């Protein structure tokens, strides 16, 4: 069966510091991968999605970037964090075919101080 | 651009009763998919139910069912025999294909459901 992991689960970082959040998927190949951010008490905002290695589409221009160095690995990064980057970050995957469901990881809670 | 609206920020229901959560969406697409996800306090997003727009029959998963009205662009979720474990945020989501491979998911703002003992 397929599983999706996110690391770390919780992170507290000072303003101006770099960021690297990792997402890995097991048990499937060529997944579509997604990064979402969820502000406190709010819905999900799609940040990036990827349909293959090295292919990244950005939905919202901001202080973040994403990379996909391996088929089942998706990384969210920042060179300098802002206070507004605080939130709950969710990674998701889908098989990519028409109508497929997205399955979510457990999330990373990021607090920027 | 597609939008998803959930007009009920918070709802409550007594255990064993039935509750309906509303969702409306706006799109010019004809082929798309609709989902309901729940997010309990653990914050893990869990798929509840899925509906293909080309299917007229409403989807059902055990105690969960939807009322899909394509012309009205409405997609409500009915929870029967509510249980304490149903307490969660519920998100309605719209999905369409992008470039034949990608998927564009748009989520509503969510409805916080509390099941009361």
Kindly describe this structure.
The complex is a heterodimer of chains A (113) and B (117). Chain A is mostly beta strands and 113 residues long. Chain A is built from no helices and 11 strands. Chain B has 117 residues and is mainly beta. Chain B contains no helices and 12 strands. In chain B, the strands form 3 sheets. In chain B, strands 2, 5, 6, 10, 11 and 12 form a 6-stranded mixed β-sheet that branches. A 4-stranded antiparallel β-sheet of chain B has the order 3-9-8-7, with no helix packed on it. In chain B, strand 7 and strand 8 form a beta hairpin. The model of chain B has no long low-confidence stretch (mean pLDDT 92).
SSE blueprint:
The complex is a heterodimer of chains A (113) and B (117).
Chain A lengths: L2 E5 L2 E4 L5 E8 L5 E7 L5 E9 L2 E4 L6 E6 L2 E6 L8 E8 L8 E2 L3 E5 L1
Chain B lengths: L2 E3 L4 E5 L4 E3 L2 E3 L6 E7 L6 E7 L7 E2 L2 E6 L4 E6 L8 E11 L3 E6 L3 E6 L1
Parallel strand pairs in B: 2-12
Antiparallel strand pairs in B: 1-4, 3-9, 5-6, 5-10, 7-8, 8-9, 10-11, 10-12
Summarize the structure.
The complex is a heterodimer of chains A (113) and B (117). With 113 residues, chain A is mostly beta strands.
Largest sheet of chain B: 6 strands, mixed
Number of helices of chain B: 0
Question: In percent terms, what proportion of residues of chain B is strand?
Answer: over 45%
Name the average pLDDT of chain A: 90
The CATH class of chain B is identified as Mainly Beta
The topology string of helices and strands of chain B comes to: EEEEEEEEEEEE
Largest interface: A-B, 24 and 25 residues
Number of domains of chain A: 1
Low-confidence stretches of chain B: none
* Strands of chain A, count: 11
Mean residue pLDDT of chain B: 92
Give the helix level of chain B as a range of percent.
under 10%
Cα-atom radius of gyration of chain A? 13 Å
**CATH structural architecture of chain A:** Sandwich
Using the CA coordinates, give the radius of gyration of chain B: 14 Å
Count the beta strands of chain B: 12
The total domain count of chain B is 1
CATH architecture of chain B: Sandwich
CATH fold node name of chain B? Immunoglobulin-like
């Amino acid at each position: 069966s397929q599983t999706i992991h996110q690391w770390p689960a919780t992170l507290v970082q000072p303003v101006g510091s770099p960021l690297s959040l990792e997402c890995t998927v097991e048990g499937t190949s060529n997944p579509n991968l997604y990064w979402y951010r969820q502000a406190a008490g709010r819905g999900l905002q799609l940040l990036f999605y990827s349909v293959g290695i090295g292919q990244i589409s950005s939905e919202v221009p901001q202080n973040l970037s994403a990379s996909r160095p391996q088929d089942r690995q998706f990384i969210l990064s920042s060179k300098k964090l802002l206070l507004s980057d605080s939130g709950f970050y969710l990674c998701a995957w889908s098989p990519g075919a028409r109508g497929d469901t997205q399955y979510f990881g457990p999330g990373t809670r990021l607090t920027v101080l | 651009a597609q939008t998803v609206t959930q007009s009920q920020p918070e709802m409550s229901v007594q255990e064993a009763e039935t509750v309906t959560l509303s969702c409306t969406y706006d799109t010019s697409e004809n082929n798309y998919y609709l989902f309901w996800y729940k997010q309990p306090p653990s914050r893990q997003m869990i798929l509840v139910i899925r509906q293909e727009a080309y299917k007229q029959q409403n989807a059902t998963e055990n105690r969960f069912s939807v009322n899909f009205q394509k012309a009205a662009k409405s997609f409500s979720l009915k929870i029967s025999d509510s249980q304490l474990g149903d307490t969660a945020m519920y998100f309605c989501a719209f999905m369409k294909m992008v470039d034949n491979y990608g998927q564009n998911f748009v989520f509503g703002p969510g409805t916080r459901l509390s099941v009361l003992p």
